[in-house]
Design a protein that fits this description.
Elements: E1 2-7, E2 13-29, E3 32-50, E4 57-72, E5 77-93, E6 97-111, E7 114-129, H1 130-142, H2 144-152, H3 164-179, E8 183-192, E9 197-206, H4 216-223, E10 224-234, H5 235-248, H6 254-275, E11 279-281, E12 284-292, E13 295-298, E14 301-304, H7 305-319
Antiparallel strand pairs: 1-2, 2-3, 3-4, 4-5, 5-6, 6-7, 7-8, 8-9, 9-10, 10-12, 11-12, 12-13, 13-14
Helix pairs in contact: 1-3, 5-6
Length: 323
């Protein structure tokens, strides 16, 4: 690997870049088949600059990998991934607010010599109050041993005991963070096969509540001001994945595989339509949600948050093994 770093003596600005042509790791175990992990064509680089807020930097960090190859299992099957990319950018908007965006791409995925598809995703956060973020990060670090202990024991996130002064500081910093009206988004999560592409996006707008002492339902309504989401499942894409599964299972009857794959997409569309969880638009099974002002619009059906919760609980219960 070649790795080069440069920066100023105060540590307020730095640039780095590097590359590695090839990395191979082999696992050998007496009781298990051998496995090989191979990375080819790694490049990375970045340009970071300090801000007036301690430990908060702005700039970009980029990484690309030409190929990742994993060989494993009794049959030494190969998972091959080509064209991986990660591009992250963090910016300072104004004096005290930061934002960031990270984009991920996978150019091509194949398993056991058969094409699977390609994928991409982008996530972003905007209008985050930097001083509040810094203070909350320090609070989290101070209680990190408690979180780690609960995680190691397989327990849920613990309730942190705070005295009145710590609680006031915590709520004050959280109030500042939410007062900037941050927005979180999954801008584009998609998976594409030879004949179709499925997509998902989600955005959530936050705001500061009048008080943190409100009942939980009122508090959540004041903090979460708007949610938009849309899921679009491609029936041809579902068919492509069903074909791949049949081939990997050893099926050889082309006509039977084609019929099974076609039925897979149509079955998903029919089930979604009958349940009310989605609509069918051409070759896509589409589910959309919009929440604002205490009301939910789910696939064109308007209801209160409580009605939506009961609607989803009923459908999830019907999908459970007991249901």
């Amino acid at each position: 690997m070649q790795f080069e770093v440069s920066g100023d003596k105060e540590g307020k600005a730095s640039k780095f870049r590097g590359q590695a042509d090839r990395l191979v790791m082999k696992r050998v175990h007496d009781d298990q088949p051998p496995a090989t992990f191979e990375l080819n064509g790694l490049t990375f680089g970045g340009n970071l600059a300090a801000t007036a807020h301690d430990a908060i930097y702005v700039g970009n960090v980029d990484l690309a990998l030409a190929e990742a190859k994993v060989t494993l299992g009794p049959k030494q099957q190969v998972l091959l991934i080509k064209g991986l990319e990660q591009n992250a950018l963090q910016t300072l908007d104004g004096t005290d607010t930061v934002g960031g965006r990270a984009a991920y791409k996978v150019g091509d995925i194949s398993w056991d010599g058969r094409a699977v598809g390609k994928a991409q995703m982008a996530v972003s956060v905007t209008s985050v109050n930097a001083p509040a973020l810094q203070a909350l990060s320090k609070w989290y670090q101070s209680h990190l041993p408690e979180f780690e202990a609960a995680s190691a024991a397989g327990q849920p996130v613990p309730q942190i005991q705070m005295d009145d002064a710590e609680k006031a500081r915590f709520q004050g910093d959280l109030q500042k963070l939410l007062a900037a009206k941050p927005k979180l988004a999954v801008e584009n999560l998609s998976f594409k096969t030879a004949n179709g592409e499925s997509r998902f996006n989600l955005s959530m707008d936050l705001a500061a509540p009048a008080s943190f002492d409100l009942p939980p339902d009122q508090l959540s309504k004041q903090i979460i001001t708007e949610v938009k989401g849309k899921l679009s499942l491609s029936k041809p894409m579902i068919g492509d994945l069903a074909t791949l599964q049949a081939l990997l299972d050893g099926q050889t009857d082309a006509q039977a595989i084609a019929m099974q794959s076609s039925q897979a997409g149509e079955m998903v569309g029919m089930m979604a339509l009958q349940s009310g969880m989605a609509t069918v638009q051409g070759d896509d099974v589409v589910s959309s949600l919009h929440y604002a002002d205490g009301m939910v619009d789910f696939n064109g059906r308007k209801m209160t948050v409580e009605e939506f919760a009961m609607f989803m609980a009923a459908h999830l219960a019907a999908l459970s093994p007991q249901g």
